[in-house]
Amino acid sequence: MNEWEVSKQIMTEHTDSKTISKMLILLEKLGISAKNCRMAEEYLNGEAEDGVLDQLARKDLSAVQRQISDEAKELFDQIRKAKSSRKKEVFVRFFNVVYAIGHDTCHRLFWYNAMERGEAYELYKRMVVYIAIHLESPGCLFHDDYDNLLRMVQGQPAKLLEVLPALREEGGLYATAALAMYFCIKYEMPDEVPAEDAALMEEYEGSILESLDEWLAEQGCAAHDGVIAQIRKKRRAGAVTGRIEMSDMDERKRRRFRFIISLAYLNFQLSEVLLAVVQTAAAINAEVMLHSLFDVYIGCKGSRTDASVMGVDYDGLFSIDPAVYICFAAWGHYDQVLVRQLGKNRESFLKIMEQEECRRLVHTYNDSCGYDTAPDRVSDSVEWVLDELKQVLQKADSTLYEQLIKSVEPDYEPVIRKLVADTPHAGLAQAYLRGRCKFAELVPYEEEYCDGFATVYYTLKPVMQSFRRHCEDPDFINRCHAFAVLGKFERINYDLEEGALSKKDGLSQFFAGLDSEQVGLAYQLQAFVLLYREVPKSARNYDAVIEKYFDDVEPVFSRFLNENEEETQKAFAQADPEGRCLGLHILGKEPQKYRKEILGYAKDSSRLVLGELRRILCRQRDWEDDIRALLNGKKASVRELAIRVFLNWQEEGSDYNVLFQQVLATEKSAKLVTLLQKELELQQKTQS
Fold it and tell me: Which of 394, 507, 657, 675 has CA 20 to 30 A from 295's CA?
């Protein structure tokens, strides 16, 4: 081994030592005994083999403090950055230590995506931790989660069978989850399970029934033995259990129920026992049972486990009240299901479109599933469901849609609830939005409406877009825009589709709406400023969009200038930088007429405004004396403006070197001195 290799090894060992020290400190914080820490240190250093892991005492790590959990996540995250195989080996050993101590309870020490990229860890351990991580929050595994698990086993059912013995030893439902995946992958189309997999199916069914039995016993269901016996006979047992309310249930118990049902659902087409489990779950609590099906499928969209496509008749198959099922399908945007339900359960479909009935169903659903039942949150959900039902009705039966939706008076209240906060003059704002007073009456309370508005863009947008889809009332839309401008909302184009203002006449129509509401010049300038700021600076076409905005609104503000020059000039000068820039841009269209006013913007402090002014001045070669006068300005920004105009003219062929030398002799700004020196040096190099 040469000197460099020896040095490199020493450096590596030193780095490993520091990493191992951090790992041991973390183990101490987790409350691991000194004896176990010593064994862990020997293992981490490579002085002990895997056998030492069996000697480490088990400990529940599911209740670790947030700070310690974050430290662990940062430490484990380094395996992604580790380049040497030796470094990765240390992390794999540490993972083995933590897993040996906590098994599935160690999931709190990992980021959500840690197991996806931890290929070096043993497969069954990765699967256990990954499942435990995701069960902690949602209460079942979603499609994306199954996708990641499938990648771990390379999409091969046989690999699931290889890790099955180890998963069985972990207890819980880990082996059941693997079996659910196994049958979903292997039997993409519903079919009778052959003899070769009969024992595995029996194990799968038995595990589901055992878990359901335990859960029912925990809920005080005295007849839980009878329920399981009934299901074993492939019969639904809902009549035995009756409904079990879950609104006040411990969240972990509700999640466990959802996980059990989702695992049974994945393969109910292959087993009458699993079908009976799902049917019984629907009787126990239809709302939570349905909630267990959201995005829970394995394979491609539209596979046999995808409820949004295959669930068109689940109401009958699982004996669910059609109204409850339609409400669930609308919440999930299951259009195919809803079209079928409209055909076969038309009365229930139309009944849900009544506001109060929809609210009742949504409230029950939220309450059962542990969601917020505050009036505002329920109202949001109701609007979501109603909008989906209206859209389906519009596509499936346009005649009925016109009769029931388009012909009735628009309902402004859902939008008004979002737009108007609870402020002293909220009633006046509501009256304006209903068309009962003028915009000018709100102006004295501008600051109140600005302060009172909460940031509800993401909940306001769908409500407003729903109104646009199903109601014809452009005047109300214009009033909403005007109120948003007055309140300086963060997103005043909340109701428009992406890029709507960039289309032909998009901005023109927006400002025409403000005109129709008699929104004054100052507030229309404010609207332009707000829209300008909403354009993301990260957009690849940012400059082109802004340029189009200027061009589109030029006729609007040119009209103001022609109708009342003095007032418009004053409004331009008092606007925010974006508004002043627009005003200057419009004045620049008639530079000779507004020469004095344009030059007056040289004292502006905004780089945006000065940039526009420079573009205007560079086109006015006959204003040279005015530009020279700016070189005597007190502010460095004024002098810089003049210098950059002259530099631009010099690039076009003029010679201002003598002028630059004169300026250098008296200039005190280090920035401008550097600018001029650099330009003169470049000039000399070019000449030579």
Answer: 394
